[in-house]
């Protein structure tokens, strides 16, 4: 056990991400004391019951008092209000970070509230499951996943950035750094647009299900099943993602629609060569992902057959 | 070990599906002898090397000689030609089946070639992985998955249907029966349209990847990663699926595009309530799938973190 990276860490919002951070910090002794706050009383009670956080506070103000690191783990749309609330209670030299899936809008919403002497180092761990809430967290969530650190501006203190990087690496993540706009574009294509598409397809199936009496659910083999997992993610979080990463998401969806129309036309006109070439090309991407170590090559994701 | 369901089974085409059938039949002694044929010499050699089939033949004709059950395990677009080739060599009373993902077009392509006295009982096991080829098969592939039997017409011998059902149940599957057009519509929404959508999104990312220097691959968290798995499936198989289930696929894609446009508009206009309500609704479908036993509730599909 090495010395803690931060003596006092405050987690604001106690869902899957914060909960997993807590367990990952405890696993390696990365924080002296971890305080937590959640707006919902039920969440605070659950956190106390399962031992999530060393101390669960009754206000965000109490939680951030004396903290060396404050991590905002609330939906992107709520970041600004939380920042305004806690700002007067931050000690000088504190680092404020967050875990939001969109970075430009979080920076715009949070930065204006923070006093001088507070380091703002936004971050985004690319990890999650389709479950949410304090009980869904686990210490291994970030192991070998990426966390992207997005310093609010060029003037950000390099030492504050390096220390946050130490924390994330200690929690098992690989850390990269990029600017906010680039982050938002990359995430629009790897995550935000795919989520919206999955949501849409599941919604279409739901309409059809009413016609075909639950067969859609019963016969959901690979394709649709993977979509439903994506589409089961937290509705509040995703609403905020789309509203705050609007431009990049709409740009990627525009390209998507264009390509989809071309493939639909190939189907309609019976252009088998076009389809075959397209499908062959997409295989190489999958190979790239396996080589990049972001997934397993085991068939069907390494799942066994479901229990009957 | 009970008595075999069929004394002699012939598998035409030796990819993932046929290979898994062989190992599943062997697991329970469901077939006396299993012969196999694949058009490619390399595939036949691989099959012999790994002990796939009791006897690998040099022609489809040799493989079907004396068989009680012939299963066509070739791409949907190749079914008609294979049926024409083997038809003169089928013994009276034989059952011919297939494993194609589309049923109406297979029936149209195969049925005209089969002589009287041969029972044609098409089927479609809803199982697979993103891998293909003879070495990708395994005995458990069909455990607790659905196999849909689609008798070619109302005159199909009920005993031939019941026997094929026994085989699939013996291989671990749950068996249902429906007519060809209904099958094709249900599969368009649960499988065919989702696959085309995943292929499209992966193609769009590929375009962007050229701009952003492999970041798309590096940062592919949940959403996109699931799409790439789907989009890594066999190109020939999927080309044939879309060309042969054209009408149902295009109908579902039409609905999909309509819904996607509505969600894009909600993003553009900042209509958060619309997005939230939509995303909440899709969660219930996911719940239905878990309750129907077609997937696990374990986070992230029960996958652990990938090995570093």
UniProtKB/TrEMBL annotation, chains A, B:
<protein>
    <recommendedName>
        <fullName>prephenate dehydrogenase</fullName>
        <ecNumber>1.3.1.12</ecNumber>
    </recommendedName>
</protein>
<comment type="similarity">
    <text>Belongs to the prephenate/arogenate dehydrogenase family.</text>
</comment>
<comment type="pathway">
    <text>Amino-acid biosynthesis; L-tyrosine biosynthesis; (4-hydroxyphenyl)pyruvate from prephenate (NAD(+) route): step 1/1.</text>
</comment>
<dbReference type="GO" id="GO:0008977">
    <property type="term" value="F:prephenate dehydrogenase (NAD+) activity"/>
</dbReference>
<keyword id="KW-0560">Oxidoreductase</keyword>
<dbReference type="InterPro" id="IPR008927">
    <property type="entry name" value="6-PGluconate_DH-like_C_sf"/>
</dbReference>
<dbReference type="InterPro" id="IPR046825">
    <property type="entry name" value="PDH_C"/>
</dbReference>
<dbReference type="GO" id="GO:0006571">
    <property type="term" value="P:tyrosine biosynthetic process"/>
</dbReference>
<dbReference type="Pfam" id="PF02153">
    <property type="entry name" value="PDH_N"/>
</dbReference>
<dbReference type="GO" id="GO:0004665">
    <property type="term" value="F:prephenate dehydrogenase (NADP+) activity"/>
</dbReference>
<dbReference type="InterPro" id="IPR046826">
    <property type="entry name" value="PDH_N"/>
</dbReference>
<dbReference type="GO" id="GO:0070403">
    <property type="term" value="F:NAD+ binding"/>
</dbReference>
<dbReference type="InterPro" id="IPR036291">
    <property type="entry name" value="NAD(P)-bd_dom_sf"/>
</dbReference>
<dbReference type="InterPro" id="IPR050812">
    <property type="entry name" value="Preph/Arog_dehydrog"/>
</dbReference>
<keyword id="KW-0028">Amino-acid biosynthesis</keyword>
<dbReference type="Pfam" id="PF20463">
    <property type="entry name" value="PDH_C"/>
</dbReference>
<keyword id="KW-0827">Tyrosine biosynthesis</keyword>
<dbReference type="InterPro" id="IPR003099">
    <property type="entry name" value="Prephen_DH"/>
</dbReference>
<keyword id="KW-0057">Aromatic amino acid biosynthesis</keyword>
<keyword id="KW-0520">NAD</keyword>
<feature type="domain" description="Prephenate/arogenate dehydrogenase">
    <location>
        <begin position="7"/>
        <end position="297"/>
    </location>
</feature>
């Amino acid at each position: 056990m090495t010395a803690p990276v931060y003596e006092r860490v405050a987690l604001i919002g106690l869902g899957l991400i914060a909960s997993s951070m807590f367990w990952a910090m405890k696993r390696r002794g990365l924080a002296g004391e971890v305080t937590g706050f959640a707006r919902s009383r039920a969440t605070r009670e659950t956190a106390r019951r399962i031992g999530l956080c060393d101390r669960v506070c009754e206000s965000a103000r109490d939680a951030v008092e004396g903290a060396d690191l404050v991590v905002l783990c609330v939906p992107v749309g709520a970041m600004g209000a939380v920042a305004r609330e806690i700002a007067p209670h931050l000690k000088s030299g504190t680092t404020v970070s967050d875990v939001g899936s969109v970075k430009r809008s979080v920076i715009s919403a949070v930065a204006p509230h923070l006093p001088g002497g507070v380091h703002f180092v936004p971050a985004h761990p690319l990890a999650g499951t389709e479950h949410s809430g304090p009980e869904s967290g686990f210490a291994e969530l970030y192991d070998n996943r990426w966390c992207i650190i997005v310093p609010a501006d060029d003037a950000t203190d390099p030492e504050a950035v390096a220390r946050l990087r130490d924390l994330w690496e200690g929690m098992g993540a690989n850390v990269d750094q990029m600017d906010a706009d680039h982050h938002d574009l990359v995430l629009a294509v790897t995550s935000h647009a795919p989520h919206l598409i999955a949501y849409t397809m599941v919604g279409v199936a739901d309409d059809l299900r009413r016609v075909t009496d639950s067969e859609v659910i019963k016969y959901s083999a690979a394709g649709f099943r993977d979509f439903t997992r994506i589409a089961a993610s937290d509705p509040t979080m995703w609403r905020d993602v789309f509203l705050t990463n609007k431009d990049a998401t709409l740009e990627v969806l525009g390209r998507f629609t264009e390509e989809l129309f071309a493939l639909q036309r190939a189907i309609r006109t019976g252009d088998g060569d076009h389809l075959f070439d397209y499908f062959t090309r997409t295989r190489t991407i999958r190979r790239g992902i396996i080589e990049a170590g972001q997934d397993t090559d085991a068939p069907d994701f390494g799942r066994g057959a479901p229990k009957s």
